[in-house]
Amino acid sequence: MKWGVIVFPGSNCDRDCAHVLSDTLEQDVSLIWHGDTSLDGVDAVVLPGGFSYGDYLRTGAIARLSPIMQAIKEFARTGGLVLGICNGFQILLEAGLLPGAMLPNIGLSFICEDVWVKVENADTPFTRHYESGHVLRIPIAHAEGNYHTDPVTLAALQANAQIVFRYCRADGIVTEQANPNGSLDNIAGIRNGAGNVLGLMPHPERCAESVLGNQDGQLLFRSMIDTVTSGQAKKQTIS
Amino acid sequence: MIRARIHVTLKSGILDPQGRTIRQSLETLGFSNVTDVRVGKFLEIELNQDDPAQAEEQLKAMCETLLANTVIEEYRYELELQPSRPLS
Superfamily assignment of B2-81 in CATH? Predict the structure, then answer.
């Protein structure tokens, strides 16, 4: 399976993603410069974390205008798997590939710590190796992860099981205290209506190998690999 | 030439933690009658354009597509005609 990891000016998790995919999961990975206009036949795309364009104006607001984004939109429209992590999630929101927007964390701090996240929907191309209700320990590192949307969109996200990850306690109970950034409904990650685009604030690539003492994030990448290699990537988007 | 001054702020229903913190600081300094503070962005844009109606149309498009994220922000602008060329 062939992966493309997009490199924006200011991306800083691109190499981490490429490392996990190539060295831990033995995948074929290309780093794709944001100024390119073609995805060159990849099977899945990762928009990595970082500070694209220095977070000028708003996080992700400038990166979504990068030349490669046209190709990513077309790739997503035709059912290709797109994963946005942290700043990648923010870019997907600004690009309109996912609904909603990010506000500064409610406590105004940049938060860099492990949190607990619950898998709310294990029936997606990104989470099929998890169980529904599975609790992951996973790092976050962001200043703007306070997800916001209007009440109608939130209701639709809830009704269509588009909320894939929520911040929770270690025992899986979702509480206000377990919400690190003020995110609406404790949202840590959502998917689009078709199901082939996922954005999440936590960093699965930072907990995907045993040497780091935590592999909770690895199953996300394995889920995507199995989805593509079993030929179900496109099928997921038809329903 | 037209100069536009654009203000982008969080929508009124959305909590502005920065504004809240500043309000509390003002209170600490003795400005106890400050009931609300909203923090936003201010942009000045110069347009090579003399028709205010067309300038306004362009500014609205700029705000909607890039300068503000209308999911969370609202915007307003003022236009000022700049004398940039000699009268013919």
Answer: Phosphoribosylformylglycinamidine synthase subunit PurS (3.30.1280.10)
